Amino acid sequence: MVVLAAGSFGARQLGSRPIGPLGDEILCRRGITDAVRCDDRSRAPFRGARSRQASGVGTALRAGEGGTGEPALESMSGNIRKRSIAIHGCLGLASLITFACLARGTQRLDQDGLTRETLKSGNREREFLICQPASLPDGEEVPVVFVYHGGTGTAKGTMNLTRFNALALSERFIAVYPQGIGNGWNDGRKTTVSESHRDGVDDLAFFDAMLKWLRDHRPIDRRRIFVTGISNGGIFAHYLAAQRSGQIAAIAPVVGGIARPFDKVFQPAEPVSVLIVQGTDDPLVLYEGGAIGGWDGKDRGAIISTDAACRLWVTANGCFEQSSVAPLPDRDPNDGCRVEATKWSQGQANSEVWLYRVQGGGHTWPGGIQYAPKRLIGRVTHDIDSDEIWRFFESHPKPK
């Protein structure tokens, strides 16, 4: 758990660098939320949860570490200082596989059910966090949900933002939070902004290595392997599923589209059910697609439009081209957002493609916190949250 302390010179974060959404270094005045312990069952479900707002200074506050869309927040006296909103790379965004999988040991953290694992993937030491129920009956195989952080984010920060731990414990699945090299993922974009792209990091091999480790050390259900992520992590979820469609049952990319030029070779071998969550007012990863946004003029690559991404998956899965469209309940009339659900069904192997179009939504995690001013990242919807993502996963396993 990270403690944020506010003092006369503004807030400071103890033990971690203040990171905001999309890999931006941001000090926020509002949107403080408590970090979620792995054993905190009271947090599930999180419907309509509101972020607490900080007021004044001199108060100890808790929040997760940073990353794309993650709660790296600090209470500040007065207005947010311009130099404190240093959005460095504002979106760090965020092959044959020859891997060696060698477990390097387990570090049990200070939260019940939470461990940090290390393994060797290629020539790199890689880390990931795991949260799982304390005990599993003999012979029971459980689902796995991989949760990928955003650009320059962290596994721990995304764990706190998404609150999948409470769901893992109450719904009995294993939540996995991988950590990217240079805090990013090689997601199919052409860019040299992030280390993972510059060095051509093989994050597909890392996924393969984690999955092998889980098969060797945990009783996982191979029919129920799921992937979600935000921003750079959401873009990577598309990229990963298209190339590991035989292993992944369903994905839920949040504010992250299909990368260019990867869309030109997009050809999943097997159906994968998809839930896309995208805000219409996202100023960084645009609903209409195009260049990834930022404030420093750097080339972060591009994505195709949200509608084009849906079409690619609908075609790949062989879904019925006619869709159903319906609004979801407006659980929070004050959040400035409405969610419209579009669904394409009757795909091969019972696959589906769903789009949760968040009208008025920004570059944020649904049900999360307003980790930065709305003028920078847009609004957070509280009409949906991680619970909807899990329900989608739960109802879309691979066929027997």
Description of the structure:
- With 400 residues, the chain is α/β, with parallel strands linked by helices.
- It has a single domain, classed as 3-Layer(aba) Sandwich (Rossmann fold), CATH 3.40.50.
- It contains eight helices and 17 strands.
- An eleven-stranded mixed β-sheet has the order 4-5-6-8-7-9-10-12-17-16-15, with helices on both faces. A three-stranded antiparallel β-sheet has the order 2-1-3, with no helix packed on it.
- Helix 5 links the parallel strand 9 and strand 10.
- It is globular, with a radius of gyration of 19 Å.
- The termini are far apart.
- 56% of the residues are buried.
From the structure above, extract its key features.
three-stranded antiparallel β-sheet, 400 residues, alpha/beta, Rossmann fold, globular, disordered N terminus, eleven-stranded mixed β-sheet
Tell me briefly what this model is.
The chain has 400 residues and is of the alpha/beta class.
**Which CATH class?**
Alpha Beta
Give the C-alpha Rg.
Answer: 19 Å
CATH topology: Rossmann fold
Strand content range: 15-25%
How many domains, as an integer? 1
Number of helices: 8
**What kind of sheet is the major sheet?**
11 strands, mixed
Q: What fraction, in percent, of the residue positions are helical? A: 10-25%
Shape: globular
| Secondary structural class | alpha/beta
Query: What is the residue-mean pLDDT, rounded to a whole number?
Result: 78
CATH architecture: 3-Layer(aba) Sandwich
Q: Name the CATH superfamily assignment.
A: Alpha/Beta hydrolase fold, catalytic domain
